[in-house]
Amino acid sequence: MYWTTIIKSLNLRDCYKINDASIISISTHCTGLQSLFLENCGKITDASIISISTHCTGLQFLNLYDCHQISDVSIISISTHCTGLQSLNLEGCVLITDASIISISLHCIGLQSLDLYFCRQITDASIITISSHCTGLQSLNLYGCCQITDASIIPISENCTMLKELFVSFTAITDSSLIAIAKNCTGLQLLNTYQCYSFRSDKLRYEFFSVSKLRAVLLSIYPSLPI
Questions:
Q1: Could you tell me how many helices (H) and strands (E) the chain has, helices first?
Q2: In the beta sheet, which residues pair with residue 190?
Q3: 3-state secondary structure of 96
Q4: Radius of gyration of the chain (CA)
Q5: What angle is formed at CA 71 by the lines to CA 67 and CA 73, rounded to 5 degrees?
Q6: 62 has which bridge partners?
Q7: Element of type H or E holding 113
Q8: Has residue 2 got a pLDDT over 60?
Q9: pTM of the predicted model, to two decimals?
Q10: Within 10 A of 139 (CB to CB), how many other CB atoms are there?
Q11: Distance between CA 182 and CA 166 in Å, rounded?
């Protein structure tokens, strides 16, 4: 049908009964897709996303929020076929590892938004590669990525200076990251560091007064423990 060939954006949010058969059929008929939103489509597996990646190579926006069956196989396929990807949401995709994000960083260098909320297998290794290759990144969500440390956030602040939003709550970063962010990301508008227990200095609050465009900041500062 003609209409299937001109569809550019498809939002199936909360269509929890949608399965692989539906998505595979969509991918073969709607090859011009640029935006696909599959939030809370829990029945979707790698079979769907692999089919999307091979047929809809012009994809720019992909939201897989809480598609908990999606693994590295899907994201690596997306990265190699959909190299124009600008936004990727993997919030709640607990099977995702560094392999996916490293592949994204190498192939999708125009990436502007990356959401890895509670992807707890993600480590500094993949975020460092993002900082090296996706320097136009504007939004990064690492909320709950408990293996993330200063080793990756400092390079993010130094290389991704266009960053506007950064979520690093429940990570293992310290004062060093916050000072680097305040120094380098002068266009930052939103920063969330809630429950980062390694922050020790009240001076951090003052560092962020120098970030002129900052609209919201949530810092959790814990007093130094007595020796």
A1: 9, 9
A2: 165, 216
A3: coil
A4: 19
A5: 130
A6: 36, 88
A7: strand 113-115
A8: no
A9: 0.91
A10: 18
A11: 12
